[in-house]
Specification:
heterodimer, A: 368 residues, mainly alpha, ABC transporter involved in vitamin B12 uptake, BtuC, 15 helices, 4 strands, globular, B: 363 residues, two-stranded antiparallel sheet, 6% strand
């Protein structure tokens, strides 16, 4: 679904050109520039080495959480956007990754060993809950993953409580890199690089035989079967990859937040991840960038910004509203309205709009 | 006497409480099944509709004064339902219809503003309010999604739940509220629950049955029977079944398909409020009520997504499984794990449920 329209005079003459991600010089400059800004951000904040106070330190934290959630949403994109399966259990797989990382690290395992092991384990758990896809699809599969979303936190709360601290938060030890603790600046770069690697892996996976099989299952599963694709095996692979990405995101979240509890990974988190995918544009590899950024900035910057004003004005406009309740109510309300607006007005998401914008920019000043 | 290592009276207690709560679960499941039957949308927001409906009932039941504007808005909802949803007998003239609507409108407005009977006012007000809620949800969020893929509608109902949660928290906060509708007043004028029914010396102990739960079960069964009769014998009910069977054909024989879908959502809204009120009367209305609807989803799937009888059976089975599971393994297993284990078993063994249509494709 990438843009197939190129400016006049740009042709592919070799296979390498055809397979390139950045087709034009402008694309290359744009992505390099974007990457550069992201990498320079913490250097421009107060905690950076130059002492320039251009970027709010709080915003650096927001970017870190965006990077983590982008990994989880990209996993979801591979399963929902490219393979066309519905899952409501992504947060539960994140919980598996986060708790496995934390438990391994508390047992003295290095973070760099714990994280891959936890991701793989999360992938295996994903495989187990992907098994119903052998028998059911569509809505029924959504129900099966909904069961995962309840069974996994239940396991963490009750039978595994000696390891996980039950419902109370589990503290996570600091990770280290070459003998140095990962915190502040180094944590930022670890998270950004992990996110970058995950994005590159996902982008390349889609260009392989596996990725094309995923897309064919989404577009027409009967036809895919006739083409000789083992539909069930590829569906399971999609579940595995999705859960591995979720586990990676969960493990990184554990070292970023330093403390995890099952409440962080409930059904509402899963819904939020799906909403990020929808707003970004399911089935586009840039979807996580758009979707996660929009919702995370909405949550961490805009909503705290407008809450005081609303607390002052809303009770005057609507006499039944108590200003004490506004704090808890405003986030689901604004989130819900934004997502409903997207579902009705542009269900294909921002990445689709971005493609349209790029095409019309390339074709200017003509409209076709 | 022990049954599988648990005292017999405790198991009997679990059985009775399970059946009684199962009746309420069946009512919740019915609300989900009606929408799914009519429009093919699985309503994940049903729990949040319940929460809103129950709190609406609480507000009407507690507050002595009611703003005329609220009464006016709710009567307007009645007007909308009567003028768009109901198919009148062919012998009625236009004047007769207008007269009927006007009388109903005036009567509901009078009850909402003038009556001293708080229970009656709460019933009328909540029914109108939740029907309006259902109509609004259908018109604003579900109808624009016609011809969109399944994933979009699933996402939409999930998100509608978020918005309803926001509205609920904005208006009522997250305080737990008791709803003493099946209660007498004591000497101080405060509501007091009826004494529970105790059956002594059965299987080596005393079995306690909460009176409120028994009344709630009775009302739930009565409402369920009423809806089954409604679908079998009334014009509107039959046209809803016809629409569910084949919307194109129904439209071809002159049924107003869109009106039927709207009415299905309105009925589901009323059912949600009824279930929440009955549940709230035996325990309390808490912000965690939507979790109850999540535990009823397995009941819907067990009974079959399109089967009304299945909703009843599924509700009872889940209620029983929960309470017996609580007796044997404790409440954390019974309420948080067992419904979802049942869900997984249903999905693997018989995805179409006990009485559902077999139309699941396998690839």
């Amino acid at each position: 679904m990438s843009a197939n329209i190129r400016p006049s005079g740009v042709f592919d003459t070799t296979y390498t050109q055809e397979m390139r991600i950045n087709r034009t010089r402008f694309d290359q400059i744009l992505s390099a520039g974007f990457l550069g800004v992201i990498l320079l951000l913490p250097l421009l904040s107060r905690s950076g080495p130059f002492g320039i106070d251009l970027v709010q330190p709080g915003f650096i934290g927001t970017v870190e959480r965006i990077a983590i959630l982008m990994i989880a949403v990209q996993g979801l994109n591979l399963l929902v956007g490219y393979t066309g399966q519905i899952t409501l259990g992504q947060a539960a797989f994140m919980a598996v990754g986060a708790y496995s990382t934390a438990i391994l690290m508390r047992g003295g395992v290095s973070f760099w060993v714990a994280l891959p092991l936890a991701s793989l384990f999360s992938g295996v758990v994903g495989l187990i809950f992907g098994l119903p896809s052998l028998r059911v699809k569509g809505f029924y599969l959504a129900m099966a993953t909904l069961a995962a979303q309840f069974i996994i936190p239940w396991l963490l709360r009750n039978p595994l409580a000696p390891l996980t601290n039950g419902s109370s938060p589990l503290p996570v030890p600091r990770a280290d890199l070459f003998g140095q603790e990962i915190s502040g600046l180094s944590l930022y770069y670890v998270l950004i690089i992990a996110c970058l690697l995950a994005m590159i892996v996902a982008r390349n996976l889609i260009r392989t035989r596996t990725g094309r099989a995923f897309v064919s299952i989404r577009d027409n599963d009967v036809a895919a079967e006739l083409l000789g694709i083992n539909v069930f095996a590829y569906k399971l692979r999609a579940f595995f990859v999705c859960a591995v990405f979720a586990g990676l995101a969960g493990g990184l979240l554990a070292i970023e937040a330093r403390s995890i509890s099952p409440d962080r990974f409930d059904l509402r988190t899963s819904i939020e991840l799906l909403a990020m995918l929808i707003i970004g544009g399911a089935g586009f590899s840039q979807a996580p960038i758009f979707g996660v950024s929009v919702l995370a900035i909405l949550r961490e910057t805009l909503i705290p910004g407008i809450t005081p004003t609303l607390q002052e004005w809303l009770p005057r406009l609507l006499p039944f509203v108590d200003s004490v309740n506004i704090n808890a109510a405003i986030a689901p309300l604004i989130f819900g309205v934004v997502i409903i607006a997207f579902l009705i007005i542009e269900p294909r998401g921002l990445a689709y709009r971005w493609e349209i914008f790029k095409i019309s920019w390339k074709l200017r000043p003509f409209s076709y | 006497m022990d049954i599988f290592g648990q005292p017999g009276f405790a198991v009997l207690q679990g059985l009775i409480t399970g059946v009684l709560t199962g009746g309420i679960y069946a009512l919740i499941a019915l609300g989900i099944v009606i929408i799914n039957k009519a429009s093919g949308v699985f309503n994940f927001a049903h729990g949040y509709m319940m929460l809103l409906g129950g709190l609406l009932f609480w507000t009407f039941f507690q507050n002595q004064q009611l703003a005329p504007i609220v009464a006016f808005a709710l009567s307007g909802a009645l007007l909308a339902i009567l003028s768009t949803g109901v198919r009148y007998p062919a012998t009625w003239t236009r004047g007769g219809r207008v007269a009927f609507i006007s009388v109903a409108w005036a009567a509901s407005g009078f009850i909402l503003l003038q009556t001293d009977n708080l229970l009656l006012r709460a019933i009328v007000g909540t029914a109108l309010g939740t029907a309006l809620l259902g109509l609004l949800i259908e018109r604003l969020t579900i109808r624009p999604l016609i011809s969109q893929p399944l994933f979009t509608t699933v996402m939409m109902t999930l998100v509608v739940g978020e918005v309803l949660l926001g509205v609920t928290q904005l208006t009522w906060g997250s305080v737990e509220r008791s709803l003493p509708i099946f209660a007498t007043t004591n000497a101080l004028g405060l509501p007091q629950a009826y004494p529970p029914i105790r059956i002594r010396d059965v299987l080596g102990g005393t079995v306690v049955i909460k009176t409120e739960l028994l009344i709630a079960f009775g009302i739930a069964v009565a409402a369920f029977t009423g809806f089954v009769l409604f679908f079998r014998y009334t014009r509107l009910g039959l046209s809803m079944r016809a629409t569910a069977e084949n919307a194109d054909l129904a439209q071809a024989v002159g049924l107003r398909v869109r009106a039927v879908l709207a009415v299905a959502w309105a009925i589901a809204g009323v059912l949600a409020a009824l279930a929440a009120t009955l549940h709230g009367s035996s325990t309390a209305l808490a912000i965690t009520l939507p979790g109850l609807a999540l535990r009823v989803f397995p009941a819907v799937l067990l009974g079959g997504l399109e089967s009304i009888g299945g909703a009843f059976v599924g509700g009872l089975v889940i209620g029983l499984a929960e309470k017996l599971g609580t007796v044997y393994f404790g409440s954390d297993v019974g309420e948080q794990l067992i419904p979802f284990v049942v869900l997984m078993i249903v999905l693997v063994v018989r995805p179409s449920g006990l009485f559902g249509e077999k139309r699941i494709e396998r690839v």
